[in-house]
Amino acid sequence: MISTPLLRAMRKASLAATTALMIGAAVAPSFVTPALAQGPESVANLAEGLLGAVVNISTSQTVKGSGGGEDENAVPMPQLPEGSPFQDFFDEFFKKNREGQDNGGSQKVQSLGSGFVVDAEKGIVVTNNHVIADADEIEVNFSDGSKLKAELVGTDTKTDIAVLKVDPKAKKLTAVKFGDSDKMRIGDWVMAIGNPFGLGGTVTVGIISARNRDINSGPYDDFIQTDAAINRGNSGGPLFNMEGQVIGINTAIISPSGGSIGIGFSIPAEIAVGVVNQLAEFGETRRGWLGVRIQPVTDDIAESLGMATAKGALIAGIIKGGPVDKGQILPGDVVIKFDGRDVVEMRDLPRVVAESPVGKAVDVVIVRKGVEQTVKVTLGRLEDGEKLAEGEAAKPEEDADKGAEVAAASVLGMTIGELNADTRAKFGIAAEVSGAVVTAVAKDSAAAERGIVAGEVITEIAQESVSTPKEVMDRIAALKEQGRKNALLMLASKTGELRFVTIRMD
Fold this sequence. Notes:
Number of strands: 28
Number of helices: 11
Distance between the termini: 92 Å
CATH architecture of the largest domain: Beta Barrel
Helix content: 10-25%
Strand order of the largest sheet: 5-4-1-2-3-7-6
CATH class of the largest domain: Mainly Beta
Number of domains: 3
Radius of gyration: 31 Å
Shape: elongated
Largest sheet: 7 strands, antiparallel
Mean pLDDT: 81
Low-confidence stretches: 1-36, 66-73, 393-406
Strand content: 25-35%
């Protein structure tokens, strides 16, 4: 028989337990993890349907000269533990890979990469440019063991993309489609298929680790970062979403050893699709071109321009004969929006311009002397613009009129002189450059900190032209009276290339 005190204690314990269960039931849903928190249950079905479209790219190149170094694209011998059961396999593979040196000193160098079929009817295959660069022969190897010779349709070094073509009548091909890389989020599952170390179709799975990565490999860097294992030989292979769509082209890794450490980079489909379509249709790219030189908007520059925040791309120069050479956009303008797309950082502008069709009329939102305004611009073609820019840079320098007297002034750690025949000759300044020349820079001065050197020419201060030492002095004095902390200077090099710097005036 249970005593009354004990019964009461049991009832209290039961009530406490019931309350705890109710609280737990109420709280539990907030801690429930998604069904795929530990990864997809299996990607076997997905991989099975995609392996046929992913190919191995084998290239060969004859390198003349004895004792030459190995091709940087050639697959390196992996470092294996002593006594590894794979040692014999790799020894045999890499022995074959490096055969071909003749008695005359020429060597046939082979390299391996990956690719994928995007058009089965036309036989279009996509890979990286660096996989097939300088190749004498290109061969596409399929997962069923068949092989086809490939011809090079076109390449783009700026995005490291190449398009190949095989004979679609020689084999029934399987193709994959590009997906929307913009919809991919950090943490989404992805799958890579490629040819690491020449091993053939290899499937790895991981997640998107980061987006919009700039690794300084080209002007349009906007990589997807993934921890899916990517090694040498995976270059040019596809990165799939869990729907089997290509959302990236695997192209680079960061690794001290040459093997995967979980930091791989893929060209997003958003960038790749336009390049692939243009290469397939024209054999070359046809990018939009604005005809400007740009630099970042720093906090100091933003303050000097009266901008609340540092954003956009600062126009440092206009290319003569370019789309905006008639004054639509001027040096010192800041582009904050292009064709409806925000320009947050300097690197955003080249990419959105390049993705725009040649000849398209677009609205460009700029900040000019603190005032936001919209200008209409018709885009040129980048490939034509590059030739124009090269010709402009190659123009010979001419002598200016002689006989002017040199007047000097000292300001912000700089000695400023008149730009005349004597100073042009002394510093080798081109005839088309105008302004006030910097003849000396004091050590440890504000100007020296900003990298200003003797021979550069001050053309504008706070977006107003200057041509004499006195005008430089007057502009600096006026800015100080306005309470400005920094002076924005537009400087020209001896050849006329422009850049902006800010100098502290306190």
